[in-house]
Every structure is written in C-alpha cells, then in structure tokens.
Specification:
heterodimer; A: 421 residues; alpha/beta; FAD/NAD(P)-binding domain; five-stranded parallel sheet; 9 helices; 22% helix; B: 371 residues; Fumarate Reductase Iron-sulfur Protein, Chain B, domain 2; Fumarate Reductase Cytochrome B subunit; elongated
Chain lengths: 421, 371
C-alpha cells in the first residue's frame, strides 16, 4: 500500500526527537511539518557541548539532520510557533498554529550589522542568563535556520529602528505581525521534550543565592566553545578558573517534593561533565556526591573509565546543605559520607547541581487534549487514535533512546496514514 | 569494613515498629539527606539514616539500645526534606516507643500501653476499678445537695488507690530505666569523659529552658508547645501536692474558692496544658502526612492528654454550673484519664522523660553531645 503524497505528519517540537520523527516519516514518502516554539531547531541538544558516552559534539549530528531537512522538499518547519488547537480525527486532523513575528525575514544573511547598531541588551536564555545578547540576535552561532530574530520584549520598536537602517538587505521588518495558519495532518506526534527543573525550588541547595552554584545545563553552556565564556570553565562570581568542583546528583530528581522519578541522564551527564573539566583544567579535582550511580548497560564502561581517573572522587551521600563562604565565594557542601559514617562539609570553587528533566506538560502545559500521568509525561494509553508521543515527552530518556523511540513512532504514523487509522 | 558481622533480622520487630508509627520505614532509600538537615545530629555517626536501614533490616537488638534515637527531638526537618516520604522523624518516634516497651517492666503493661490498639483496654482498666470500688462501697449514685466530689469519690479512696499504684509504677520505672542504662552502656561502651552526676545535672539545666529544642529552627512552634505542656504538668503536680497539704494540714476541703491562690495556680496550669497540647496537635496537623500517623504511639498520648485537660476543665465548669447529673460522671471520666497519665507513665509517651534524660546524659559522658 502506498502513502498518498498529500498525507502529512505534524510534529510538535523541533528537538532531536521531533526532528527524527519528521525525517523518518518524510523520507518514507509523507509530508512532515515541524512546529517549534524556539526561533531555532535542535532543542536541548543544541545546548549540549558533548554527547555521552562517546564525547562527540552533538552539533555534528544535528547538522547532518539539518541538511536532510534542507534537501527534502517534503519537510517544512515553523519556528517561534505553537500549536493552539487540534481538531478532527486520525487521518484528518486540522491543527491551528500561531507563529510569532520574528521581525526578520528570509533575506537575512546573518551578517551581524544589526547587532552592532542595536542599543538594547537582553539576558541570553540560550546560555541560561550567563551572558547577554542585543535585542536583535542570532539564537546561537550555528542556529538553524541561520537567521536573526528580534526579542519583542526588549526591542524599543520603530521609535528606535537603528537595526533597520543598518541592514543592507531589507531583512528587518518591525511591522511584522504574528500569524495563524491551519495545517491538515493525518497523524500528529508530540515531541514536546523537557525543561530543566527549576533549581531555586530546592531551598537547601541554595541555587540563585550562592553565586557559584550552577546547574548541569549551565555547565554545558560554560564548556561549549559558543558559550558565554568561549568554552573556559570559570566560575560566575569572579571568573576564576575552576580547579575544585563538586557535582550534586539527584538535585530534585527521585524526590517526591520535586520530581518523583529518576531523570535517567544526570549520572552520565555529570560524569561526562567531569571529563570536560578534567580535560580543560588538567589539575582540577572533581567530587561527585550521589545516592546511587545509574549507568545502565554499556554505560557502565564509561563509569569505569571516569572512575579510573584519580582526580575524580565519588562520595555516597546526597548533598542536603549548600552555603557560601562570603570571603572567598567558595561553596560549602554538606553531606553524610555514608561509607564512612561521617557528616562532612567540604569547600569547592564551584558546584554543579545535576538537575533533572521536567516534562513540558508539567512546566508549561500542552496544546490539545492529551492525558499525562501524575508527573506530566504523556501516556500512550490515553492518546486518541492517530496521535503519538515520543522522546522525553513520554519518559526521561537519553538522546540515543529518544532517537530510537522517535523512529518507532514514525512507523506508527506511517501505519496511521496507510490505514487511515 | 573488614570485620565480618552476621545480621539477625527480627521480622516481628519490623511489623511492630510499623504498627506504632513507623509504617514508612521501608520507603527509605538511604540518600542520607536526613542526617544533614537534622540540627541534632553530630558529624560522627550521624542519625537517622543508619537507624532507618537498621529498622528496615529489623536489627532490634542494636536499635533499642541506640542512644541516638533519644537525641532526636522530633523537629521533623528530616521528614520535611525526605525525598521518599520515609518520615524518619516518625520512625525514630516509633523506635522510642519500642525501646520503652522493651525495657519497661512488667512487660505486659508495656505492651498494653504502647500498643495503640490496646488503648481502650488501658482506659477500661481504671474505669472498671473505679466502678467496682464505688459500687462495693455504695457510692455509685449521684449525691444530693451541693456538688462536692468527695461525696461521690471520697478523698482517702483516691489517695490510697493512686498512691499505692503510683508507688508501684515508680519502682517499675526506676528498674526500667536501670535496664535501659545497662543496655546502652553495654552496647556503646563506657569511655567516659564526665561523671554521671555532672552530666545529669547539665542535662537537666539544659532541659529546663528547652535549650536543645530551640535548635529546631524550622519547627520553632514545637518548642513552645512542649514548654507549655511540660510546665502545665509540673504546675498540676504542684497543685496536687498543694491540695493535699490543704486537706491534711489546714483541713481545707474541696471545693476550694475560686479566689484562692491555689485555684489560680491550678487553673493557669490546666490552661497551659490545654493550650500546649492544642499547639502540639496544630503543629502536627501542619506537618504533611498527619493522616498516616493517627494510629501511632505519640498520637494516642496526645489525644489522652487533650482529653485529660478538657475533662478536667469541664469537671470544674460543670460543677460551677451546678449540674450534678453531668458533673459526677465527668469527674469519673476525668479520673480515668488522670489514672492513665500518672499510673501508666512508665509505659506511655511520658516515660520518654527519663529515657531521653539518660541518653543525653550518656552523650555528655561520652563526649558525643553536640552543643
């Protein structure tokens, strides 16, 4: 049975899971549309410095995917767009999508002249506020689409207009309006992903009060060449190169007061990040405080490799108190060293909280009528026919498993389109 | 750990621990948050994480002689921060109940009073004794005329009955505490840096202003509640002596005029007890998970004390209103709760007083106490 060429799969979310689901269905002969909220595709993966366990750069794989998107006329995507409404049934959905004005059109060459002209700064959310951009900015160095965007919350608008004058290509249109489009789709995939859990909610871990306490996602940006420090691991309070760092595992995860599940990736992520600092600052020392280390299957090999490094120490015992030494800006970390039956307080130059993944449904809600379980993950059981969910929208997953899951859900979409189910 | 040790789990003990308020013990996954957030736990061998795993393993022999369970003042910071809802504070409370039950003699008394399911039996015993006594002596009826409780239950009966039973209970308590002391010192060593009497005096002086309790920062109301309950009881104890003094020395008989300083003192003490126990209840209600704990050892005693205070105040008020048909039965009910509180004290929550004092004394003697 062939798939009618007008059949479309609509994917909500343009992170790694959504991109994979869209590519796999489109390359099997359907049309695919990605609806992405950010001004760029790639989602959380775009913010990572390295993948575990191979320690290769995630952007390598993302760029391959972007090329597949560019070369395939069957795939289209909307950035800065959110699904507002879903109606119809399997084989015949109508999806209303609202796309926010980008104020920059396709004529943009990413020359950057506008940035020099722009007088307004905004905190850079891509780098978790660790630096700023101008109100007109490129989301990040390798952003796809490679096009600038205006943050309307900070831009002074036409009364300023300096960027418009600076742009030789007529790419900036401060009159641009939000628009609403309706898309017909045969099947829908939720690939709505996750947000880092708000670390300020763990009051005893002092994030936001002690300057040199950061999150694991911030550590990715600190390590990345296109990050706020150009890849130097230096601490926020005084820019000092970090030589003595601690990782706090289960910061919010496996905790019924916060995220009542294991986020699945944080143990591997912290060990991976331990290798970042060991590589960049060769004399550095790392301490990882954990409840138990979860490195299933082949990941155990990576754990052994990290464990073999004499400068990386593992302490069994969850950190439950973090304070600041106001003199030095150092961070005082208290835990019970379970193996030695001692309550210990140690001093570190910087502390990384291994914060977990909170599903989008829980942080900001989801469009349409989907059932989630108590933690906000979408349950396959509760979904209407023709609607699927993949990736971290369904459960905490690493990238590898997300891709496998997205491919599996692509098959489900194809079955729906073929059978009209 | 190089030395080999054989653990002998006591499954029955786990069941009993869970029955007296420690039902969440198995939820613990040993993250060790509790010992860090606990303001009472020191740096060496902190609690309550180790008690939680010992509880899961049913290591009864070690747990009942573990002085650490008595350093816990039930601030419940541990339970607040516990990621699994394992409620270490409740589990330690249940362990204290088990320890009291283990050391208290005679053993059957410990089992009746510490087991919340036996509370009805524990209350029925004095009531039956009273009814039999009053029935046999022909007092089981509502007396005529002005309400004077001794017309219904003559003072000498009360004196003899209570004095003899409290005397027995006191002896039993002292023996129990001795057994407890021998247990903890045998299990945890006798490397003393301080004399017993010095350490005990220090413990008492520290207790009177509730200095240790003040460390419960996030739960400061608990200190005030305990303070009122404790001094309410002290006041009522003094009242009892006072009234005995009036009766035998000055031949002043109840009811005593409301203007009398003794009456003032008594009423203030009773109100302190009532307000204190209501604060205890409200503090526990604010604390999440109160529903799961209503069957516990602590909760049983809290309810008893509340009823003790309420029936005591009602006994006085109804007498003043002159409703004889209600006043005498209320007095009888009140006496039942008085009996529970003072005759059962070696086996009830009140017993913690001596056990905790000894455990903290031991901590001071061995240098484990943290300031």
């Amino acid at each position: 049975m062939a798939i009618a060429p007008d059949k479309t799969v609509l994917v909500i979310g343009g992170g790694i899971s959504g991109i994979t689901a869209a590519l796999e269905t489109a390359e099997a002969g359907t049309k695919a549309v990605i609806v992405e909220r950010n001004p760029y595709l790639g989602g959380r993966v775009a913010q990572l410095y390295r993948y575990f366990p191979k320690l290769c750069p995630p952007y390598c794989g993302l760029e391959l995917n972007f090329r597949r998107i560019k070369e395939n006329p069957s795939i289209s995507y909307y950035t800065m767009a959110e699904v507002e409404d879903i109606s119809g049934s399997a084989g015949d959905f109508t999806v209303r999508v609202r796309q926010k004005a980008r104020y920059v059109n396709e004529k943009c060459t990413a020359c950057g002249a506008c940035v020099e002209a722009c007088p307004v700064e905004r905190p850079n959310d891509f780098n978790f506020g660790m630096d700023t951009t101008k109100a007109i900015y490129l989301p990040h160095d390798l952003a796809f689409p490679m096009r600038y965007v205006v943050d309307s919350n900070h831009c002074k608008g036409k009364s300023c207009g300096k960027c418009v004058e600076a742009c030789k290509y007529g790419a900036i249109d401060l009159d641009m309006q939000d628009k609403t489009v309706e898309i017909k789709a045969g099947a829908i995939v939720y690939a709505t992903g996750w947000n880092p859990y708000d670390a300020t909610r763990m009051d005893n871990l002092s994030f936001g009060r002690v300057k040199n306490v950061i999150t694991n996602m911030m550590m990715e940006r600190l390590s990345a060449q296109n990050g706020p420090t150009g890849g130097k691991i230096i601490r926020p309070s005084d820019g000092k190169e970090v030589q003595n760092i601690a990782f706090v595992q289960c910061a919010g995860s496996r905790d019924e007061n916060h995220l009542n599940y294991c986020s699945a990736i944080c143990c591997m992520a912290s060990m991976k990040q331990a290798t970042y600092i060991r590589e960049k600052n060769p004399d550095s020392r790392v301490t990882i405080f954990y409840i138990d280390l979860r490195t299933p299957g082949k990941y155990e090999d990576f754990y052994r490799k990290v464990q073999a490094d004499e400068n990386i120490r593992f302490v069994k015992g969850k950190v439950a108190k973090i304070e600041e030494d106001p003199e030095t800006g150092n961070v005082l970390v208290t835990a019970e060293d379970v193996a030695n039956l001692k309550k210990i307080t140690e001093e570190f130059e910087m502390v990384v909280l291994a914060t977990g993944m909170e599903p989008q449904a829980r942080s900001q809600g989801l469009p349409g009528n989907v059932n989630t379980e108590e933690n906000g993950f979408i349950m396959a059981d509760g979904l209407p026919s023709g609607i699927f969910a993949t990736g971290v929208a369904t459960r905490p997953l690493d990238v590898n498993t997300s891709n496998q899951d997205a491919t599996a859900k692509a098959i489900k979409c194809l079955q729906t389109l073929v059978g009209g189910r | 750990m190089s030395e080999e040790r054989v653990l002998s789990p006591d499954i029955q003990f786990i069941k009993e621990l869970r029955a007296v308020g420690g039902e969440t013990v198995k939820k613990c996954y040993q993250c060790a948050t509790c010992g860090v957030v606990c303001p009472m736990a020191g740096d060496e061998r902190p609690f309550p994480r180790k008690e939680m795993i010992m509880g899961q393993l049913g290591l009864k022999d070690q747990l009942i002689v573990d002085p650490d369970i008595w350093y816990c003042h039930n601030c419940n910071d541990c339970s607040k921060y516990c990621p699994r809802g394992a409620r270490p504070g409740d589990v330690l409370g249940a362990l204290r109940a088990k320890s009291i039950q283990e050391f208290a003699i005679p053993k059957f008394m410990g089992q009746i009073v510490t087991n919340p399911k036996m509370t009805i039996v524990a209350l029925a015993i004095p009531l039956v004794i009273f009814l039999v006594l009053l029935g046999l002596t022909g007092h089981l009826r509502i007396p005529e005329g002005e309400i004077v409780y001794s017309k219904f239950f003559p003072i000498p009966y009360i004196e003899i009955l209570f004095m003899s039973l409290v005397g027995l209970a006191g002896i039993a308590y002292i023996v129990s505490l001795k057994r407890f002391w021998d247990g903890i010192t045998a299990a945890n060593g006798k490397n003393y840096i301080k004399r017993f009497d010095d350490a005990l005096l220090e413990t008492i002086l520290e207790f009177l202003p509730h200095r240790k309790f003040t460390k419960c920062e996030t739960n400061a109301d608990r200190k005030n509640a305990h303070f009122l309950v404790f001094y309410g009881f002290v006041g009522l104890f003094i009242t009892t002596l006072w009234i005995t003094f009036y009766y035998y020395v000055f031949k002043i008989h109840s009811p005593i005029a409301l203007s009398d300083p003794m009456k003032w003192f008594a009423n203030i003490s009773a109100l302190s007890l009532l307000v204190g126990i209501l604060m205890v209840i409200s503090n526990r209600a604010k604390d999440k998970g109160v529903n799961s704990k209503t069957s516990s050892f602590d909760m049983t005693f809290i309810v008893i004390v509340l009823l003790l205070a309420i029936t005591g105040i009602l006994t006085e008020l109804i007498r003043l209103m002159g409703i004889a048909g209600l006043a005498y039965p209320m007095y009888l009910i009140h006496l039942t709760f008085v009996f529970y509180t003072i005759v059962y004290f070696p086996y009830s929550k009140l017993a913690h007083m001596g056990y905790r004092a000894l455990a903290i004394t031991y901590a001071k003697m061995t240098g484990r106490d943290i300031e």
